[in-house]
Automatic annotation (TrEMBL):
It comes from the Eukaryota. GO terms for molecular function: kinase activity. This is Nucleoside diphosphate kinase, putative. It is found in: Cytoplasm. The keyword Cytoplasm applies. InterPro entries: NDK-like_dom, NDK-like_dom_sf, NDPk7B. CDD domains: NDPk7B. The keyword Cytoplasm applies. It comes from Angomonas deanei. Keywords: Cytoplasm, Kinase, Transferase. Residues 110-249 form the Nucleoside diphosphate kinase-like domain.
Amino acid sequence: MTVIIIAESAFVSLGRYLSVLTEECGFTVGNIQMCWIQSEHVDKYNLPNELNNTRVTLVQAVRAAAVEKGMDFVKRSPGTCTAESKEEAALWKDLVLEASRKPLAVFDEPNSSVVILKPHLILNQRAGTAIQQLIDLELEPTGLTQLSVSSSMADKFLEPYRGVLPSVPGTVKSLEGTAWVLQLVSLEDSKDVVNQVREACGPYDTVIAKKLFPKTIRAKFGVDQCKNAVHCCDLPGEGPVYTKFFFKK
């Protein structure tokens, strides 16, 4: 196990870096959290000084010879750093756990969207590619957290969709397990973030998505109507509601 830190300056390539880690380097992501590094974190966890007072994404990455492979990854990935020993990796793992207790996000931002990357997408190592497709919309990732979604949590979240979604029980099942939750905002007020993200995700039904919108995330990575890769905000104003549900602890 090792911990790789992706600096804020590299967020434009966040999804691409995650894809390289999982699809090319053979890592499994054990945990992923975006957090704000403060001076006490730099001192407590022996972090590079240049990370002070910036956002980072912490990736707890697992594979054989993880520390060595992490160092290989960093050499070709500008804006990243990694633990250089097993002891440092164990120390930084504590930072990941600390970050998971209070996930970073922008609360009460009306022009925001939240995307839940479903467990099957993560298991298939394609979550990074999906994230990059969303970031390429020139949207700003302002929150990213990994959650263990229980049946009761998924059921509570989907309660407002009963009578709207074609298969709520199946959708509940598709959310159970390890999911990543991504918040996106725009630095330009003229952008409709919810609409942009919804269009990039594609139709809820993957059959329709594959036939009519083959470049969308659900068309590329969806399996069926329930395991359709992602769940995202559909209506204006849902961003703050989703953010409060998934990020506020």
